[in-house]
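Minutes, project check-in
Item: structure for the 102-residue chain
Input as provided by the requester:
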Amino acid sequence: AGGVVTQTGSRTTTVVINKSSGAITLFSAAGSATPASFTVDNSTVAATDVIIVNQKSGTDKYIMSVTSVTAGHFVITSYTTGGTTTEQPIFSFAVLKAVTSS
């Protein structure tokens, strides 16, 4: 059910991973205290799903959150708590299937 993908171009470049869980290796860059966002295109995601994301590896410590979920996509926004190491941190994610009712 899981997969891996490596981001290319920049820390704001969209990645595509059509799995319900996996690991995203970010583009190699210096950590920044300025928030940056990137889109994850993922055909398993419904607008009602919940996405969990955490830091799997990296020297700098990142604050990350999912700032948008729509059918087929979610957005991760992250920044460091002050580290400026040039590295390729890995973020893990999992899609939790959910529904809403009125």
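Outcome recorded: Residues 2 and 21 are 5 Å apart (CA to CA).
No further action items on this chain.
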